[in-house]
Every structure is written in structure tokens, then in C-alpha cells.
Backbone:
């Protein structure tokens, strides 16, 4: 594991956002959804997430998730991802989203 400095960590913009919409993403190489997330003053951003094993589209609506919002946009097929959805792989390699235990304002930065 490579160590980083506090200054390195401070550069990563981990922000809270609320899922507003979830859409099928049949063009994805691995099963995924397209997510529309409200990051408050940072705006509404789109990304994809390989979370179909643990979540239905309906249960994702309204959840607050954690995203990295300061990576460059990334082209995924015909879709442009505007942030990185964060999560952890379970024992089968399926992704469990990083979520919050309480509610914070959209766009709040992880401290």
C-alpha cells in the first residue's frame, strides 16, 4: 500500500449527493445503472455504477451517496460520467455503495 500525505487526501473532493434518478445502462460491459445525483451547489451530475446486484432502481432513489466530484469527466461508451460513485466490493466482488448514516446537505464535503 502506498502512503499519501494529508495534502494528497485534501485534493480528493468526496461529496454527499442524493440520487434523483436511476436508469438502465444496457450498453455497459458489466451490469450497471446510470445515476442522476444532486450535489447541491455543485449541480446535478451523472455517473454509472455497477450496483445492480445489491440495489433495485427504486430503492436507490432518495439515497445519499458519496462521490468523487473532481476527477475529469470520463467517456463510458456513448455516456459521459461526471463523477465517481464510491463503494466497496463484497465477498463476491459485487459493489456496495458508500452511503451516509444520517442526512447532510447535498454537496457536503467529507472531512
Residues:
Amino acid at each position: 500500500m502506498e502512503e499519501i500525505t494529508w495534502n494528497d487526501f485534501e485534493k480528493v473532493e468526496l461529496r454527499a449527493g442524493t440520487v434523483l434518478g436511476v436508469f438502465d445502462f444496457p450498453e455497459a460491459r458489466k451490469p450497471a445503472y446510470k445515476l442522476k445525483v444532486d450535489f447541491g451547489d455543485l449541480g446535478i451530475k451523472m455517473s454509472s455504477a455497477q450496483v445492480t446486484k445489491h440495489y433495485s432502481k427504486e430503492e436507490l432513489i432518495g439515497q445519499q451517496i458519496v462521490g468523487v466530484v473532481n476527477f475529469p469527466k470520463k467517456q463510458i461508451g456513448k455516456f459521459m460520467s461526471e463523477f465517481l460513485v464510491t463503494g466497496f466490493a463484497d465477498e463476491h466482488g459485487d459493489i456496495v455503495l458508500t452511503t451516509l448514516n444520517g442526512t447532510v446537505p447535498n454537496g457536503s464535503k467529507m472531512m
The beta strands are 14-24, 33-38, 44-49, 64-68, 74-76, 79-81, 84-85, 87-89, 95-97.
